[in-house]
Amino acid sequence: MGAGHDHGPITAGAANSRRLALVLGLMLVVAVVQVTGAVFSGSLALLADAGHTVTDSFGIALALAAVWIAARPATSKRTFGFQRAEILAAAVNAIVLFALCGFIVMEAVKRLSEPAEVSGLGMVVVAAFGLVMNIVALLVLRSGAKESLNVKGAYLEVMSDALASVGVIVGGLIVWLTGWQQADTLVSLGIAAIIVPRAWALLKEAVHILLEATPKGMDLSEVRAHLMGHPAVIDVHDLHAWTITSGVPVMSAHVVVSEDDLRDSGRMLDELHECLTGHFDVEHSTLQLEPPGHADHEGARHP
Do 62 and 89 contact (CB within 8 A), yes or no? Predict the structure, then answer.
């Protein structure tokens, strides 16, 4: 049996921890300004946007905590360390977003039957400030969102908050110029509509990893065919691939080779690991070399 690399690579989330910390600071400032503005303007849309920003801050704080936990060294009980904590945090982020949507919808329904007095000018000023801060945060997180699911979650939250700020600005202008108070309520419902699909996409991807499904973009039939392409490989079975955390795919397989090739197992493992790393971006793989007929003694196994 052979193993590729150690279990302690720097995760994609850890590489972006400073960006997450900076964005957390920005979001906390925005949340304070939005809550204050909501109190003075009476705007439900602004309060919903503030709630969204608070959720962003909570999510980013979770992401930072998860990155810190994931960076802790592996132990004999947790051989991959705490890297999966980043994915758990992403799933929690998505669930909190769903809860926020429920709150917004309930409050908006109340306002539809009992409109409240709202300051349109106050909505516009506060939402514009929030939009500027959100744009700055998006620029900070943009590159990291391509590498880490956890950073991607924070990026999507800030993006939805930016879109919500645009909606609040439009609603505020309508209230300010026409006096139609229900615009504030409709914007609140629009914010909820923006949040739901993004939260669902994030939760779906997190669950995909937690269920140890095959990494996206990887076809195990292609991996098997590539391994079988080695002149010494007779068969490949018990082939599995999954993701520990964003950017850390792993794989294991039983590889059948002749008795003669087993005598030079070191060379065989080097060649097969190099093949996997070079063609499928799998940095950690565990391969068991075995002679023909050995699979008959393994009991139940996968293809």
Answer: yes
Neighbour count for residue 118 (Cβ, 10 Å): 26
Taking only the tens of pLDDT, the chain with its 303 residues reads 444 444 444 455 566 778 888 888 999 999 899 989 888 888 888 888 887 787 778 777 777 776 676 666 766 776 666 667 778 877 887 888 888 788 888 888 887 887 777 888 999 999 999 999 999 999 888 877 777 776 787 788 788 788 888 889 999 999 999 988 888 888 888 877 877 887 888 888 889 888 888 888 788 888 888 888 888 888 888 888 888 776 678 888 898 988 777 878 888 888 888 877 766 767 677 888 888 877 666 654 555
Residue 229: Cβ within 10 Å count = 9
Nearest to 191 by CA among 25, 26, 38, 10: 38
Q: Which amino acid is at 200?
A: W
Angle between helices 149-178 and 44-70 (to 10 degrees): 170
Q: Give CA–CA dist 89/137, Å, rounded.
A: 20
Q: What's the half-sphere exposure (Cβ side, CA atoms, 13 Å) at 250?
A: 19
Cα–Cα–Cα angle for 41, 52, 136, nearest 5°?
95
- Cβ burial, residue 49 (10 Å; 0-12/13-18/19+): buried
* Burial group, residue 176, by CB count within 10 angstroms (0-12, 13-18, 19+): middle
Which helix (H) or strand (E) covers residue 111, if one does? helix 85-113
Candidates 8, 18, 7, 9; CA nearest to 144 is 18
Instruction: Report CA Rg, the chain.
Output: 25
